[in-house]
Amino acid sequence: MKVVNNEKKRNAFILKHQLDTYLSDTLLSSLRLMEVKTGEYLITQNCQATHLYCLVEGKLQIERYEINGEHVVFSFEQAFCVIGDLELFSTKDEMIFSTVQALVPSYLLALPLSIIRQKALQDANFLTFICQQLSQKLYQSSLRHSQSPYSSEFKLRRYLFFKTQQEGVSFQLEKRDSLAAMLGISTRQLNRALAHLVSIKAIKLKSKSITVLDEELLSQLNGLV
Question: Distance (Å, rounded) from C-alpha 149 to C-alpha 47?
Fold first, then answer.
């Protein structure tokens, strides 16, 4: 991870994501633009939290290794999202809960926690901004948890349906082992479900690229319409 000393690019990201609406001039001036390369780790679990990060371009994988060695993938995050908001109010010495890895070259705006403690914890606009981010994460987590009793095929169909709502009918599929871990199924189950969706012409799959051929069919299969 490196600091990008490009004021014009930094300011463009601030305006694009309307951060000037929620952050005071003091906080805005403290933001530093960071670049993370593909495969590079932004933060790792159980380390000391030092910054709040705003993902303004790119894609991240949020994951964690449990004591028993189990690899848990929580989500794949794209712009705009905040990293470190959960730790901001943690009582466990601000230790980082998850590991965050860049799936593609990514840009983030970093805000030191020391500045937040001094200037922002009594700021209504900033706290509203953080609450909105936490609310969105809770909603996404609830969606993932609500599908836990369902079959592997149902979980994949539902994931792909919501993916089309966010990115359109063509997009890149995450690494299959990571996606399977996030859906709570095995890689074999994921491959079987993908093959079935291809066979019924709901999707077209080529390497890591997916094109949804029949969005209505996919949504009906999910029971979403």
Answer: 33
